[in-house]
Structure formats: structure tokens, C-alpha cells
Fold these 2 entries.
Entry 1:
Amino acid sequence: MTLKEFLKSKYFFIQLLLAAFLAIAILWLALKFLDIYTLHSRTIEVPDLERLDKEDAQTVLDDNNLNYNIRDSIYDADREKGTVAAQDPAAGNEVKRGRTIYLTTVAELPEMVTMPELTDLSLRQAIAILDNHGLKVGELEYVSNIAKNAVIEQKYKDGAIEPETKLEKGTPIDLVLGDGLSAEKVPVPFVVGLDRHEAMMKINRASLNLGEEIYLDDDTVNVKVYEQEPSALEEVPQIEMGRTVDLYYRSVEEFDFESYLEEIQMVDVPLLYGKTPEEARELIRESSLTVGSEVFENDVSEEDARVYEQDPDYFDELQIKRGSEINIWYRALEDFDEEEEEEL
């Protein structure tokens, strides 16, 4: 039989079909094996491991055929030592079996930091430096001294603490401050909607102390301030320096703070000092507030008048209810003393 006759024969076509079928079968089996081996289209939802201790997290991951690797550890005084602080990928993501989940845990041993020198600094400077060093502001104590809000002494556990002393990160440092030899009261800042750290910093910067803390939900970590006492919603209360502000927290996962804050509608108090009547009114309108009474001392004309007093007064970070009135007092430029003129 010639080659031409063989290629036209029935036997050749049968062998060709068998070879094609065998090739297709081998290819299908290879793809099926690869599909099974790589678990194609089969994924596992990453479980939520945060706040679990390392042993429990490992058990959960083993049950889900996942691996883990501790990538980092951080010190956090507000979380239980040895628990999971963060994970990557995050909970809810779909991954293949055998995927490694990277964990960040809360360190068992605290990080040590150095105590800075705060004496003679202003309260604001001291707060910023403590925060940069990983320390917290403890109790603010005011004593009779001409240096208002200047640090007279830095203390730890009722005793003086020297600069360069090693402390655990997050340690609260008490500050003794001058009261300026006056019984001046300070406005209570509005801290609703802030997290615990932000609220505490704002309260301390206002020369006040953090008082009682009440958690209204089971969550004590992912929270924001829901209420404060004294409240600053209807009017701005003023209390003695060093007094306390109590805070009530709610979980950000259980409460809609965005809608709550829109409903409250608090705005910043503008600084009007030295402004002309026209400038002051414009600033008030831009701040979504209302012009209240306007007093022109000694019948000063609008052209010569400048703001020298406002109520509520301007304080850094002070907020009041949108639409509230601001009362203004004007006097002539020549009636400002030298020190007041330098501030204009």
C-alpha cells in the first residue's frame, strides 16, 4: 500500500480520530487537575481576627485552612496585650486556601520613652511635646502664680519627675500650672464627634481635665464622644481652670455620628476683634451665625468703629450652635490703648 492509499484508508482515519480523542482527554484531565490543585473558583472568606489573642487567631485560621505570619507588633495601652490589632487582608476578603494572613499584634512589653523637660513652657507646648514623646497629659493642677498656663512643675505619681527619666509609653504626666493670679473661667470646648484622644487633647488645651468616662455600648475601642458634661450644645458654659469634663462614648459601628453631627450643627466662633462693622457682619454671616445687638460706644460712627469685644468671645477651637447670635461692642480707633492697637 502506497502512502497515498494509506492516508485515504479507513484505518488511518480511525487512528487519527483516536489520537485526537486521546489528546483532548489528556488536555481535559490536565486542566481539571490544575483546577483542583489551585482551587479555581473556590475561595475562603477571611475571618475577623481583631481583638482575638494569638492562640485563638491561629485556631480560627487553621479551621479555615489559612496560614498566618506576625508581621509587626505595636504598644497600645487601650488594647489587651497579645491580641490582634490589625490584619492583612482585612476581614471579609475572599482568598484561596493556604493564603497567608499577616497580623499586627499588641506588644506584650511596653515601649520605653524619655521624659522631656517641660518647665516654663506653655500648656499648649507641653501638650504637643508630651504627645510627640508618646506620653499623655495627666491631671492639670492650677496654683497661684503670675505665669498663666505656664508649666511650673512636672509630676508622676504625686512626685516630681526629672527630664531624661525612662517611662512606659503612654504614661500620664501631671502638670502644675500658673493661674495668672486670677479667678478667670474658661469656656468648655465642644468635643462631641471626636475620638477619645482628640477629645482629651482639646479638653486639656482648654485648661481643663478629663473627668468620668462612660461607654454606652459594649465597644470601648472604636468609639467617639456622644455627649459631654458640661454640655456645650445650647450655650457655652464657663468653668474654673482645672475643672473636669465628663464624656459619654458610643461605638462608631453602632451609631451614625455623621447624621448626628449634621443635626447638631455646630460652627466655629469667628474672631471679630479689630474688624469694622461691615467686616464683622460679613464674618458672622459666613460662619452661619446671626448678628445680635451692636453697641457703638460714645456714638462712634460706623466708619471709625472697630470691634473691641464680642459675646460669645473668641477662643481657639470654640464652637457654638449654628444660627446663634453674636453680640458686638465697638469703639473708636483712638479709644484703643497702645497694647490693644498692637493686636489690631
Note: The radius of gyration is 34 Å.
Entry 2:
Amino acid sequence: MLLDEVDSTMAQARRIAPTAAGHIWIMAKRQTAAHGRRGRPWAAPDGNFAATLLLRVGGDPARAALRSFLMAVALRQTLAMSVAGDRLANKWPNDVLLAGGKVAGILLESNGQGGQVDFLSIGVGVNLAAAPAPDQVEAGAFRPTALADHGASVSPQDFLFWLASHFADQERQFREFGFDPIRRSWLAHAARLGEVITARTMRDEMTGTFDTVDADGNLVLLTASGRTAIAAADVYF
């Protein structure tokens, strides 16, 4: 589904989910009310990539949420077609970095009932043509960067073709072999693995060595008080 303009592709996914027959990619040339995690605004200049994959998944929310890692791996594979792969890194839980700057972000939303997920929406924003100015992102956030800043030019339509293909490969692997191969692929390109980082939740701040991502997708830190698994947080280096 290609739209000229929409409030956000995530909102469009919510609208069509009740009658959707299966998996649908929704891409917009322009979003007027895009947002990221915790409702933060997401700037989407012309020429950038904004899309949502609406998936009929079923199952429990924890397993559904692991698909953020599938999308991150697929995103890195797609970006690596335009820039050197060693310049790309996965930042837990849902960003991709290019030369240390944030080039892409992922957002998950789910709906269902009885403790089960019926539909999962995976929103993806990629700075293809332009990055927002530093004063447009929250204080302390990673500096934004765009693919074009590094000499690469990709149309949103071409990017969608390859991203959809790479994600389909990851989804097949996930269904056949489980999360572990995805987890290992993600960790192979994890930003600051083995280094000291800080994770801030809504209530706490923890600093420790980034040890791994566990089988449930949690960030594992080695802190002064021991090994700590964190389900949701903002990470700072």
C-alpha cells in the first residue's frame, strides 16, 4: 500500500488491521504526525523512508516483540547494500547506527485480546535523503545522520523492495529455527558490545558492561550488583 500522504503509517495500520487479511506493507511519501518510541516526534523529510509492516502473527506478546530484532537485522542488511557494512551497528533495542549516528529506528505496536497478539505493526523510519537537525531531537539523543550524508542515494521504493525481501528471509528463519540465529546475527553487529553503557528506564538508571542480549531479547548488563536483564530502556553510551 503506497500513500502520498498520511498522518502516520502506524495509524494507518491500526485503521486497517481489523479487516486485513494478512501481511501488508504500508509506505507513505509524507507523514504529517509520525512518532517514535513513547510518543516522541519523528521527523520525516521528503525522500526519507517511512513504512509500517502489518503482520498477522498470533501467539504471546513476548514472542511477537522479538520481531524488532528481525527487522533490525533486515534493516542493516538493506543499508549495507549502499554503505560499508562495518560502518553500521545495531543499537539496542530498536535503532540502527551509521558511523555512530542514528540512521534508522523501529517502533512496535500490537493489538489482540486474551493475552494474545492478533496483529503486530512494525514501523520503520530511515533517513535516506536527510536527517533532522540536532535541535529537533531530544537532549542526549544520538545525533541523526542520513544515508545521503555518506554518499549513497536510494529511493524509498527501492529501499522497501529490499527491506521487505530481507525481512521475509528473517521471518522464515524465525519460524523455522526460532530466535537464536536472529539473536546471534544481531549481536554480531551490536554497538558497544563488551563496553560500559547506561540504560535508563522510567524509574531507574543502570550502568554496566553490555554483556549480551538474552533469549527473551532483554539487554544484559554486568553491573556492580551483578548480572541484570533489562526488558525496556533507553540506552546511552
Note: Residues 95 and 114 are 30 Å apart (CA to CA).
